[in-house]
Amino acid sequence: MRDHAVCRRRWRRGRGRDRGGGRVGAARRRDPRPFGRPGRVGRSGPDQTGRAGAPVPDAITPTTVTVHWTAPTAGSAVAFYDLCKDGQQCGTVPAGTTTGTCTGLSADFDAGIYVNARDEVGAVSDPSPTLHVHTPKGEGNPPTAPTGVQVTAGSLTSLSVGLSWTASIDDTGVVGYTVYDVTSGTPVKLGTPAAR
């Protein structure tokens, strides 16, 4: 079960004013510190040495974002890194690892991804800068199967063979095919020609 407290940000009360300049009671301002931070736990704790660097995207799918980042200042007592999505924990990796995957996202959706460093007793650093991403649409309909596979005339040699087939159809477009040899009963990949 994920502990979303390591990713939430606290709100503190402030004073607002109406359009005429009068006070209208309490208004909310965002405190940049993470919610639930137990406090500083010694000069080597994460919040004594700074925050993780801004996450950099490595791969984005409809439901996940994989990122990497730079570690806080040398000497930090970091034990874990928590990946956060808009205030909710979406992944955790141990210290020494500066890449991770945020899971549980929605397809075709905007999300803000950031990283918190956390020490053994639960003290949490300030959050890294936020990476704003938009996940791609999910693939609901797979391509149709290629049909009419045949050997291209004059292409057969002792080492190779040319093939042709009727193209597959897909609502988002076909980008390539994978050719397998199944003579042994177990598919063996032979090549990945691009779609034309």
Write up what this structure looks like.
The chain has 196 residues and is mainly β. It folds into 2 domains: 4-8 and 31-134, Immunoglobulins (Immunoglobulin-like, Sandwich); 147-191, no CATH class. The chain has one helix at residues 46-49, and strands at residues 9-17, 23-34, 56-60, 65-68, 80-85, 88-94, 99-102, 110-118, 131-134, 147-151, 163-166, 179-181, 188-191. The strands form 5 sheets. The chain has a 4-stranded antiparallel β-sheet, with no helix packed on it. A 3-stranded antiparallel β-sheet has the order 3-4-7, with no helix packed on it. Strand 1 and strand 2 (23-34) form a beta hairpin. The longest helix is centred in the first third of the chain and has 4 residues, at 46-49. The chain is elongated. The model is unreliable at 9-47 (pLDDT under 50).
